[in-house]
Amino acid sequence: MSKSKFNDLIEILSNANPSAEELEKMGLTRQEFDLFRSDFDVDNIIYNRILADDERRALTPEAFGYLLELVEIGSINKEQAEDIIFFSTQLYDFVPHKINKIMMDEIINFAKFSEEIVTLNDVMELFLVKKNFIQFKGNVN
User: Fold this and answer.
1) Radius of gyration in angstroms for the set of CA atoms belonging to the chain, rounded to a whole number
2) Residue 19: how many CA atoms within 13 Å on its side-chain side?
3) Is 140 helix (H, G, I), strand (E, B) or coil?
4) What is the C-alpha to C-alpha distance for residues 90 and 121, in angstroms, rounded to an integer?
């Protein structure tokens, strides 16, 4: 494919609504174009996230993998995933073990399906009060 033809193809594919003539010129049908656009969704780019040391101490690999799977399939977005990592890291200071997949699922469900904006206090209340998870680490005077 010549460089100019390749550039024309890129221009057409990056256009939100190319004309039928432009598509025909490149040998594409409207269905092929629509299929390409649905597969090439910018918001559906792989979520590459590496945990920091404190996050790694707070989350089990299974819980983090579960979170990444939910982002990949579109159940939650990247911003929600970051909030959930933050909530999990903070919650870890008060629960007796790492945040596992079951706990992660509860945090996600609570954050995703709550009718109001969820804060860290809400997540702490969910686990420390409602689920009787309160066990502080270390010595308490």
Assistant:
1) 23
2) 3
3) coil
4) 10
